[in-house]
Amino acid sequence: MNFKFTKWHGCGNDFVIINGLEENIETIQPQAAAICNRNFGIGADGVITVCPSENADFCMRIFNSDGSEAEMCGNGIRCFARYVYEAKLTTKSEMTIETKAGIMKPKIIASGDDVLVTVNMGNPVLQADKVPVAGFADKTIISEEIIVDNENFHITCVSMGNPHCIIFVDDINAVDINKWGPVLEKHQIFPNKTNVEFVQVLNRSKLRMRVWERGAAITLACGTGACATLVAGVLNNLCDRQASLQLDGGLLSIEWNESDNNVYMTGPATKVFEGKYSG
Ligand SMILES: N[C@@H](CCC[C@H](N)C(=O)O)C(=O)O
To answer: pLDDT by residue (tens digit) across 64-82?
Structure first.
């Protein structure tokens, strides 16, 4: 398989972006794991394709590094927006992008010398059966206790189009994410598996978050995870509706707007290099 690609990252969460308007990407999904492999491929947390859309300016597909397809990707969509704008696939700095989680609206903004992207990520989904979490019907899961391998966790579950399980902890550095991440990701109460965020509240407007991503293991950042975490923090009365999320790879600013119920994410999107893949 041969294609031209561009490599991007958002807070260290990195992606291979392929322009499906020019490249043949019909068989990309079976190749995604090989492309993302950090020793034998390009190396990335995910592969993103730019596709045409009948309902929006573009359609984005995102494949995790294990080859599974996700509904949405927060860091990825900021990179996508900046990519299509800088590659001159559009002249709009504010655009609509269709995803499997609905239509998202990124806006490219200048901030001093930096370029940031703000995305209207839509409404968070809180009903258990829609996140989905099994066994709780349409209840909202806020600090629900579950016991896994004799360890107690208080989970709050939020979908931002993709599922998230948020756990507030006293000391983020004391959490063995490699141990608990995969166990919780594949726990039987999550029929579609889940992303898992461990969060330490630094103050009401600053949270420290680390993530185990469904289909990608530990990554340096997760945009949908940061949005879900802010929502979970508000539901648990641990933070304000606007806060900074300190991730391993950078900072995201998240707001859950009270009047329209939408979550807004602002953060960087950085191009790293371009290349040609033959594999
Ligand atoms: N890193 C992404 C999320 C990518 C998809 C996720 N692993 C899933 O399977 O839901 C983000 O920035 O949101």
So the answer is: 999 999 999 999 999 999 9
Atom of ligand 1 nearest to the CA of 216: 7
Q: Any idea of the CA torsion for 12, 263, 176, 133, to the nearest 10 degrees? A: -130
Cα dihedral sign for 192, 197, 203, 205? Answer: negative
Closest protein CA for atom 2 of ligand 1: 73
- 0.95 surpassed by complex ipTM: yes
Query: What pLDDT sits at residue 112?
Result: 82
Written as six digits, the tokens of 60 are 């984005």
Q: Ligand 1, residues 45, 64, 77: which to mutate, most atoms within 8 A of Cβ? A: 64
Count the residues in the chain: 279
pLDDT, position 256? 98
- pTM confidence score: 0.98
Domains and CATH numbers, the chain: 2-120+268-278 (3.10.310.10), 128-261 (3.10.310.10)
Rounded CA gap, 47 and 61, in Å?
8
Q: Cα-flanking dihedrals φ and ψ of residue 230, to 5°?
A: -60, -45
